Amino acid sequence: MNNVEMVGHGLSGRSFASVDDFSNQELAYVLSLAADVAENREPFTDVCRGKIMASLFFEASTRTRLSFDTAMLRLGGQLVSAVDVGATSLAKGETLADMARVVGGYADLIVMRHPWEGAARVVAEYAGVPVINAGDGGHEHPTQTLCDLFTLQQERGRLQGLRIALWGDLKYGRTVHSLAFALARFGATIVFRPGSGFAAPEHVLSKLATDYGGELVHGDVLSQSEGEGVLPVDALYMTPHSPHQLAMLPHLSAQLELDRGVDALYVTRLQKERMQTQADMKPEDYPVVDRKLLRKKGFERSVVLHPLPRVDELSLDIDSDPRSLYFKQAHQGVPVRMALISLLLGCNPRTVQPTEWFGEDWRPVAHPRYVHETGIHCPNERCVANQPSELRYLPQKFVLVASTPPRLRCGYCDHETEPAVVATAEAYDEPTYRRKYHRARSRWATTIRPENLLLFASAEDAEAAGFRPGAA
Ligand code: NCD
Description:
Layout: H1 3-9, H2 24-39, E1 52-57, H3 63-74, E2 78-82, H4 96-106, E3 109-114, H5 119-127, E4 131-136, H6 142-156, E5 163-168, H7 174-185, E6 189-194, H8 202-211, E7 215-218, E8 235-238, H9 243-247, H10 250-259, E9 264-267, H11 291-294, E10 303-305, H12 326-331, H13 333-344, E11 369-370, H14 388-391, E12 398-403, E13 406-410, E14 416-417, E15 421-424, E16 436-439, H15 443-446, E17 453-456, H16 459-464, E18 468-469
Parallel strand pairs: 1-2, 1-3, 3-4, 5-6, 5-9, 9-10, 16-18
Antiparallel strand pairs: 6-8, 7-8, 11-12, 12-13, 13-14, 15-16, 15-17
Helix pairs in contact: 2-13, 3-13, 4-5, 6-7
Bound molecules: N-carbamoyl-L-aspartate.
């Protein structure tokens, strides 16, 4: 088997819960196959005959659900579906794990949208068949990212080194989270332009800064320019492409980046359904993309993308502008999802040559897993691991993304938590009176090896576990 065949073959049986589940080469392979499908659907007509896809949509959807269903039918497969939690046994208190085991016994593939963050990851762990995340709360939407990357690649001829502005609700918009991670991996410059109060969440920015090799510059170091261009910018992610960039002062190289304009504007609506207060729902300065904006410096060559549905953030007056690609982007959903389904089900009939080949492929950073049960909980109340039905069986799951001071990232929803105090597991070999805990941000904490770190949310928790206060 040659390299190209290995990439295609390697996707069979896999799940796609996060965009980081596939390497760059694998993402590019799916997109190349999607281009092949878009050009000529004929060879794919019957490749999934006899296969059944469970289409489970527990949140509103038009494009994603209908394009997944259309994709499976175009491949010759069949569907079973559920579109309302109230109509399933989840409403009777059934756990996601039990549902996954049952549906995994009926269908060959599960596509699921669910409001809990990390829900698709849990279903993927228990289903025994491939699971595709069609949106898990405000966390991720990796197949929308495939559609976004497909459109960008078709339009710009490449995935590498793009310059993209992410616009609107970057806090709750799951599409921008998956897209930002993927773009960073392809060496992009990302401009963050949120409505005020809707900046990208801390854990997303933190992951960009720790996992993808680029540099994150926060808005306060970027100078304001006079009304022209893309500013005010909240944050900028840069992949250094030359050594001089690294040597330069961050705000200078950031300003240079901004002056070069962007390849695409990625616009998103306010995600009202995820908000808790009425005030949030009516922000005063939500940025609008219209004809006037597209005439400004830096946007002359920018294409406009939007995952849709749009509300007021994207003016109707640009619909006929050749740079507006959002309806085309939505139509790509079918060939992109046909390619993905056929690969995961091992039914793909063709070997395609990726348009881009990455010598050194991207792999996720292997952060050490945090294995001690010290009562630390994910701080995100929307995380699947914090739901009463799931708490009964689902372990809290973390990786250690930094050790000075220690920071844990939730394995389901990516939210981070910083414990208050630490101790060493080696203390268990000591008599109880010598078991000491220390502040997490102390010199002592830095002397404990990651595999021995015991992390506690509070001093009381450490004391309850038999530790006494040590040196500060
Ligand atoms: C997006 C979603 O559901 O996250 N829509 C989609 O899948 N195309 C974006 C949105 O709802 O705003």
